[in-house]
């Protein structure tokens, strides 16, 4: 059986999607985030108990007084165990997912109920969606949307969609055919049949579907918590990571309360909205008699009024509470509406730089008008003072004639890019052609053609008159006149078919970032020296707008930045240049500040490269529930908070954490086991990360047994003793490099792989197992590493590894995002200088271990009190 | 398109109560309201091919082997305004399919449906819906009331679809309900009513739109026999006042005989006989119809007019003894005959003797013989034997 590379195909499909549809994912992401933020803001705005009251009134209306009272009690419980905000963000997540799901599922279900084809097509797709383990969706989810609520919501939507579609389809198909026929017999149109007969009758079933969608959504929150979805799911996930039964139970109960509330409410709603449901409820009430108070339900008007009053009170309170928060962001309205006219030639770098400055200047309060011109008209316009600035002047060669003509009426604000070059290029799959001279005698391969651009362009003149002659190609090749877009289209076509092609190109050009092209070398210098791309302004502009002139003079772009921006514009499409620029600037947030700095103050020491106070932005720190990481993370949290920094701690799995770091969603983490343990992540993301050096080492990985197991001192001693250890070696999280080394190298290396089975687990799980076995003096073999507090806590033997199967020791590194050193120069320095001794680390770990999870900050504080001066050592001022 | 009915001559033999007056207004211009013209309905593949074969004389069985089902084969008839046209057949005979082609719920595979001269089969969907909304109503076997609507909303449904304003449609719906004897039930819900009442809601719903043509699909079959009879009476009563044109589907021959001005008997998708109740009862075409009518209570269907003979002697029946009218059912004639020693006189509306019914003739008739065969047997004991027989019957 040949190995089908199914995984690889999916992999490359996902890669392709990511590189080609990133705009779509960004759009989805911003829509979903927007909805989530909106709902979440609305839910968390009122006082918890007040909002609980609102929800309780809703329950009262839909289900009766008892339900209302219970709802209030349950929600008050959530508030009292301090999980209210988590509960509300979970509720927001579920609501967003539900709304989106229903918006897709109900129409799809209706469609499927009316068309056999649609039904037949959707059925297997839905089966696939529902049976694929939901966690699998998280992987591409993270790649497309990064960590946070969005991949969680998307995974939830995919997972919850099928019942929504199915129940809608089923509900409509279930409607008695006689009734549909009766409707038709009275001349009802298909649309009215749907609205007046099918949907009302299907409503109970559809509402059952809604209920299922919500319940599935709730069941997904824990999974969403794994990728940073936060909320109760995040709390459960934290609890799992720490084996924190208390927190797990509290968060679990909160989820149950939410689930019950939502379940009953949607059930009640189902009855209220469907006429049949109302009938049944009325009957039941009439039949029930007795205990009327509990079944009493306010009339809708009363309920709405009650909700409204509570909401108004809530809104009023939060209005007072929230006042004064709305200070204008820094950024400065420097332009104050002054007008700046930019002119540009429709060359790619001209478009890119012009719209870049249009955006930048608009952000700074200028009113910017960008107009496209022919080169000659552009220079004339500037000379006449109608156009203020243009950014695409190729000097000294290409635009020499214009410059000579108008130079006394123009100001040169300097070159922002250069040198440029003109060249002929071939795709890199064309082997054996690396320089212009190589083209000779190859005309057959290229069909004797060089694909040119506008015949009027200076480059074309140069090519025909000088370059071809110089290399003796003029008899052999014909330069095909065309246009820049035509040349690019031809290039695209040929590239797709892997046909040989020679094109007339220049640098910078986005084609170099979109295609793999070779610039043909020009050893004879026939193309001449490269121009610089200059910014020109009309005479007097610098006087009128000194800040803008200053910014433009300081403006520089690297080839990487320019081609990247050009490619972004190219992908976004014509007419959306500024939008593309915005997208690009969002990905390069610091550049706007760099190129057009707004005035503002911060003390010199902690100013970053953009002149901002690096403390203004909260630091996102990722951690995983490994003891040394908890210790280092909370230690730095305590230290940096004294230095005026704010930190957001987020718990992660190793994989998503590295992905998030590489995208800049996380700024730093302290537990990089390098070079061995986390090698694969470093290999994958290393070029987008910054290694801030090691703070502890060397570490080692080992298998440890309690010291009451007398005769086992090295890995080799384990052989033949599987019975005593029940054939098990208790491992940690599957998929970690440590575990891979254990399974693939260590066990085979000592011939233990047939005898022992490595049990996948988690670090806390492994420690719990160790604790249990140790207490009963049972033999146990566990995967451990140094440093670890377990060596202090228990008498353990590290099994010797004479064959060095575990490899050399790692060191613990501080790993930061690529941008981090520029953004946080001060922190970068502190982190680089940071080290802990084994004594310090194990002392701190023990302190944290003793105080238990949830008390890390107290433990760190206690430890710091015993180590005076540590703050100044770690973060010297 | 107006068509003079070719059945005008047979009409004189219809002697049921009210039947004559009922048709009086339209007697001069014989207009057919509804005409079916060579209707075919074939389900399955290659329906057109199947129609060709059926037209050439193939039967249902042959087609079924190919996986196609011929539900209706070459059905042609006309229905006159104000007439109750009954389609009678066992289940699977294609009668319901035929009915659904009449209002376009099913599109005929071949043939045409003409309604007031318009070819429904060629109408675009929107106009067809318009016709169904305003001109043709339907009453269903299992009532098909909307369970999510009150009785009033159900009755008003057809008007709601037409976009009639609420106040007016509710007024008209209440009127229709009252007409059907459900005056006080408007606010109730369908599931609170008995079967008979539910079907009256169904009838009210059909009547509320003021449609001229009422299609009734085994409308009374799901009801208890007593209630069914009640509903039949009520329908006839209503029909006297409203004079709708009705196509009524049933599998019950008694019901067909009771209600139908004209009856089409269907078997295996084909109409095997078309005619009045008497035609079918007295002149069944083929064994199938003949076996069908065995269980019919002839004495309730046939009238004095069908049994009577010309007075044999002048002055016969001129006495003051009790007499009967031509449309008196035979069962009642028997009751009279038991009290008079000689043949019962049949007097028309003006009191003239139209004929007489001798007792032996009456007895023979109930016994299932055609009146013409009922020759008296000249033996004394034979007469008394037949009297015994009559008493027995």
Automatic annotation (TrEMBL), chain A:
The keyword Cell membrane applies. Keywords: Cell membrane, Membrane, Transmembrane, Transmembrane helix, Transport. Gene3D superfamilies: Dipeptide-binding Protein, Domain 3, Glycine betaine-binding periplasmic protein, domain 2, MetI-like. It is found in: Cell membrane; Membrane. PROSITE patterns: ABC_TM1 (PS50928). Residues 87-266 form the ABC transmembrane type-1 domain. SUPFAM superfamilies: MetI-like, Periplasmic binding protein-like II. This is ABC transporter permease/substrate binding protein. It comes from Streptomyces lichenis. It holds the Pfam family BPD_transp_1. Its main location: membrane. In the C-terminal section; belongs to the OsmX family. Belongs to the binding-protein-dependent transport system permease family. InterPro entries: ABC_Gly_betaine_transp_sub-bd, MetI-like, MetI-like_sf. It comes from the Bacteria. The chain crosses the membrane at residues 49-78, 90-114, 134-161, 213-237, 243-262, 301-320. The keyword Membrane applies. It is a multi-pass membrane protein.
């Amino acid at each position: 059986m040949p190995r089908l590379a199914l995984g690889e195909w999916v992999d490359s499909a996902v890669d392709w999607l990511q590189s080609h549809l990133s705009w779509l994912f960004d759009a989805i992401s911003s829509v979903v985030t927007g909805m989530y933020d909106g709902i979440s803001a609305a839910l968390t705005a009122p006082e918890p108990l007040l909002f609980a009251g609102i929800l309780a009134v809703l329950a009262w209306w839909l289900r009766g007084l008892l339900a209302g009272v219970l709802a209030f009690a349950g929600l008050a419980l959530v508030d009292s165990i301090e999980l209210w905000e988590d509960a509300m963000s979970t509720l927001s997540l579920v609501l967003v997912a539900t709304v989106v799901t229903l918006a897709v599922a109900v129409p799809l279900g209706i469609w499927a109920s009316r068309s056999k084809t649609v039904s037949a097509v959707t059925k297997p797709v839905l089966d696939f969606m529902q049976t694929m383990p939901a966690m699998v969706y998280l992987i591409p989810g993270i790649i497309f949307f990064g960590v946070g609520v969005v991949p969680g919501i998307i995974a939830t939507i995919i997972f919850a969609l099928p019942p929504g579609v199915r129940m809608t389809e089923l509900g409509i198909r279930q409607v008695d055919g006689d009734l549909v026929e009766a409707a038709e017999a009275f001349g009802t149109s298909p649309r009215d049949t749907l609205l007046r007969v099918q949907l009302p009758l299907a409503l109970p079933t559809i509402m059952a579907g809604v209920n299922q969608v919500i319940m599935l959504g709730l069941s997904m929150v824990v999974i969403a918590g794994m990728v940073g979805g936060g909320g109760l799911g995040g709390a459960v996930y934290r609890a799992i990571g720490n084996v924190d039964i208390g927190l797990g139970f509290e968060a679990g109960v909160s989820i149950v309360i939410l689930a019950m509330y939502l379940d009953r409410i949607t059930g009640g709603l189902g009855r209220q909205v469907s006429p049949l449901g109302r009938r049944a409820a009325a009957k039941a009430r009439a039949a029930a008699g007795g205990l009327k108070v509990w079944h009493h339900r306010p009339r809708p008007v009363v309920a709405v009024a009650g909700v409204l009053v509570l909401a108004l009170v809530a809104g009023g309170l939060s209005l007072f509470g929230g006042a004064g928060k709305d200070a204008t962001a820094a950024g400065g309205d420097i332009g104050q509406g002054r007008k700046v006219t930019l002119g540009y030639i429709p060359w790619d770098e001209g478009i890119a730089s012009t719209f870049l400055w249009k955006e930048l200047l608009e952000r700074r309060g200028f009113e910017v008008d960008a107009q496209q011109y022919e080169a000659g008209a552009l220079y004339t316009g500037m000379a006449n003072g109608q156009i203020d600035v243009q950014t695409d002047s190729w000097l000294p060669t290409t635009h020499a004639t214009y410059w000579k003509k108008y130079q006394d009426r123009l100001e040169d604000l300097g070159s922002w890019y250069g040198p440029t070059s003109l060249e002929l290029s071939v795709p890199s799959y064309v082997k054996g052609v690396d320089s212009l001279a190589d083209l000779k005698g190859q005309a057959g391969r290229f069909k004797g053609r060089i694909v040119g651009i506008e015949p009027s362009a200076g480059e074309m003149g140069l090519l025909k008159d000088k370059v071809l002659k110089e290399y003796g190609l003029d008899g052999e090749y014909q330069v095909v006149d065309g246009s820049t877009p035509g040349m690019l289209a031809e290039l695209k076509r040929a590239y797709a078919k892997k046909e040989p092609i020679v094109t007339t190109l220049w640098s910078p050009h986005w084609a170099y970032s979109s295609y793999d092209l070779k610039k043909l070398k020009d050893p004879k210098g026939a193309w001449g020296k490269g121009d610089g791309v200059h910014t020109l302004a009309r005479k007097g502009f610098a006087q009128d707008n000194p800040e803008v002139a200053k910014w433009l003079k300081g403006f520089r772009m690297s080839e990487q930045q320019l081609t990247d921006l050009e490619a972004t514009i190219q992908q976004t499409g014509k007419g959306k240049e500024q939008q593309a620029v915005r997208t690009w600037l969002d990905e390069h947030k610091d550049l706007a500040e760099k190129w057009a700095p707004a005035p503002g103050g911060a003390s010199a020491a902690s100013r970053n490269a953009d002149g901002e106070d690096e403390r203004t932005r909260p630091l996102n720190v990722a951690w995983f529930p490994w003891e040394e990481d908890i210790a280092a993370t909370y230690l730095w949290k305590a230290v940096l908070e004294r230095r005026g920094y704010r930190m957001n701690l987020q718990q992660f799995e190793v994989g998503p954490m590295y992905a998030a770091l590489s995208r800049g969603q996380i700024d730093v983490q302290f537990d990089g086991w390098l070079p061995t343990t986390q090698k694969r992540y470093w290999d994958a993301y290393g070029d987008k990360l910054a290694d801030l050096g090691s703070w502890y080492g060397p570490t080692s990985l080992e298998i440890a047994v309690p010291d009451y197991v007398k005769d086992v001192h090295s890995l080799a001693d384990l052989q033949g003793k599987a019975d005593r250890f029940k054939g098990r070696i208790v491992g940690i999280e599957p998929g970690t490099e440590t575990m891979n080394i254990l399974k693939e190298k260590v066990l085979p290396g000592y011939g233990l792989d047939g005898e022992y089975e490595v049990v996948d687990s988690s670090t806390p799980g492994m420690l719990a197992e160790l604790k249990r076995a140790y207490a009963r003096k049972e033999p146990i073999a566990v995967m451990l590493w140094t440093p670890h507090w377990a060596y202090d806590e228990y008498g353990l033997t590290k099994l010797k590894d004479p064959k060095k199967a575990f490899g050399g020791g790692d060191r613990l590194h501080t790993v930061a995002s690529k941008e981090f050193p520029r953004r946080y120069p001060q922190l970068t320095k502190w982190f680089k200088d940071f080290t802990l001794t084994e004594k310090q680390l194990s002392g701190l770990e023990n302190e944290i271990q003793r105080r238990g999870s949830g008390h890390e900050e107290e433990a760190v504080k206690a430890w710091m009190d015993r180590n005076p001066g540590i703050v100044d050592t770690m973060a010297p001022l | 398109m107006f068509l003079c009915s070719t059945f005008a001559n047979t009409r004189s033999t219809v002697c049921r109560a009210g039947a004559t007056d009922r048709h009086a207004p339209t007697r001069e211009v014989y207009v057919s309201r509804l005409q079916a013209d060579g209707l075919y309905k074939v389900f399955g593949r290659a329906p057109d091919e199947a129609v060709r074969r059926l037209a050439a004389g193939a039967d249902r069985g042959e087609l079924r082997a190919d996986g196609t089902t011929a539900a209706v084969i070459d059905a042609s008839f006309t229905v006159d305004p104000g007439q109750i046209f009954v389609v009678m057949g066992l289940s699977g005979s294609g009668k319901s399919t035929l009915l659904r082609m009449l209002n376009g719920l099913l599109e005929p595979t071949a043939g045409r449906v003409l309604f007031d001269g318009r070819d429904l089969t060629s109408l675009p969907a929107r106009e067809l819906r318009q016709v169904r909304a305003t001109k043709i109503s339907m009453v269903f076997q299992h009532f098909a009331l909307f369970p999510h609507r009150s009785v009033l909303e159900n009755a008003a449904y057809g008007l709601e679809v037409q976009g009639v304003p609420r106040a007016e449609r509710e007024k008209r719906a209440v009127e229709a309900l009252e007409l059907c004897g459900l005056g006080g039930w408007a606010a109730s819900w369908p599931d609170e009513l008995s079967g008979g009442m539910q079907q009256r809601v169904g009838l009210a719903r059909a009547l509320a739109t003021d449609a001229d043509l009422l299609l009734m699909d085994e409308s009374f079959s799901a009801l208890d026999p007593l209630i069914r009879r009640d509903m039949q009476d009520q329908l006839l009563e209503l029909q006297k006042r409203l004079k709708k044109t009705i196509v009524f589907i049933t599998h019950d021959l008694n019901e067909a005989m009771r209600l139908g001005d004209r009856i089409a008997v269907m078997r295996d998708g084909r109409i095997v006989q078309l005619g009045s109740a008497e035609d079918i009862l007295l002149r069944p075409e083929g064994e199938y119809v003949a076996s069908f009518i065995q269980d019919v209570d002839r004495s309730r269907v046939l009238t004095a007019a069908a049994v009577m003979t010309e007075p044999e002697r002048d002055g016969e029946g001129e006495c003051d003894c009790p007499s009967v009218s031509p449309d008196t059912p035979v069962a009642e004639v028997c009751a009279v005959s038991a009290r008079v020693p000689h043949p019962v006189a049949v007097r028309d509306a003006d009191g003239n003797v139209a004929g007489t019914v001798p007792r032996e003739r009456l007895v023979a008739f109930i016994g299932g013989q055609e009146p013409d065969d009922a020759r008296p047997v000249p033996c004394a004991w034979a007469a008394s034997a037949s009297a015994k027989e009559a008493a027995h019957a």
